[in-house]
Fold each of these.
Amino acid sequence: MQLRILNGRISGDSLGYYTCFKHNGCSTVDYIITSQYMMKKVISLRVEPHIHPSDHGLIAMTIPNGVMVPTIEAERPLEPTYGRNLWDTESAKLFRHALLSEPVSDLHSRLLVST
């Protein structure tokens, strides 16, 4: 499956707005990633300004009516992370593995059927 990052490529976020706001600068670290097929279905994407206490802006995408997007519950509570995370080859493998996991694959299949 060919995956695409929507940030900076879709109406509403064509400039690729920052998603993370820290005391020492801003960056884009939060993404919406989808298949090439589903990318064609996305109407718009927007990044909202961050709201304290979070240092991230909410990312929202608009897809055609009639498509139900269920939430995926985390298997365990999310814990805060500290320090600096470096993106490396192992990170890329783990990320791709998560994207190809059964819950994400099932969600993707349901989206394809409903459009």
Amino acid sequence: MNPKDSSSRKKRYIRVIGPRLRVLLFGILVLFALLGANSAYLSSITFLEWFTGETYENYFYQLMFLGHLVLGLLIILPVIVFAGGMDYRLNPEGICQLEANCPASTDRLSECYR
């Protein structure tokens, strides 16, 4: 086999994260950052109450807790859509099972997939 033959048969490079998925990923990362900041605030107030024995929970704390719940619920759908988009980009034919003729003792599972 000539080296020219193998180079001409190379698969075209496809970006795993396309432009629309990139926007969705950015939105998911922003939501996770907000959720993390909110988490840090809630945990610091909880720790401060435990450490000092005084109560620091007020109306703002309750709003932050409600915001934490809302952010957690808001992030579920975009993560599911992103995972589905990634699955489609990586496997457009929908093939997700091993080939029937794949030897069970193989170390390279990539040979078993189409």
Amino acid sequence: MRAMVESRNFLSLVLSALFGTALFYRIPFQDQNNLLQLVLIEKPYLFYGIKWAYIGMLFSTPYIGFSLVFSLASTSLLLGRRRQPSSASCRPTHPWQAATSCSS
């Protein structure tokens, strides 16, 4: 479980690459849209900028989602564990409490 928590960034990257590739083939960029064809004729740099932004978001959005899910999952795993009290918690908070020791 600890290894999964430590490698959650790599796991998010791999899953988002797989998911982004599936989206790339499932929902391709609409090159044949009439408005986009007009943009391509008038300003090709804008058309290709829109196209690359679309493709970039196909891969970055799943990464953000998987990163969020794994971050919340690891946080809930870490918060769910109860830690044993350390000896540091037995230290007195004030000097006049030094006479009482932590015997339990």
Amino acid sequence: MDTHLSLEALAEIQRFLKRIEHKWYDIGLQLGLDPARLEGIRHSGQTQGERLLSMIQLWLKGLGADAPPTWESLCRALEGVVVEEAGVAANIRRQKGTFPAVRRDMHAQAC
């Protein structure tokens, strides 16, 4: 089971997302954060990196997110049609040892 992340994971998450920090807004939307909160960050005068950090903090605090903050929920957001960063998600899964759950009915059909 994927454990909930806390603010202690902030620097590690930021490291994984550094290359795509310009997509902070879209990542926040995919994570289910409130667009009004994201707009507040957008208009805060921060750099892209600072905006990414602020967005991650909101998500880790559980402020308006659709799913609890876990490595897997982050990976699913990165793979979404808005963000389209499956390579970053695969890197996180490889390094953190997390893998998406396989639905049993799909597995049974494949056998």
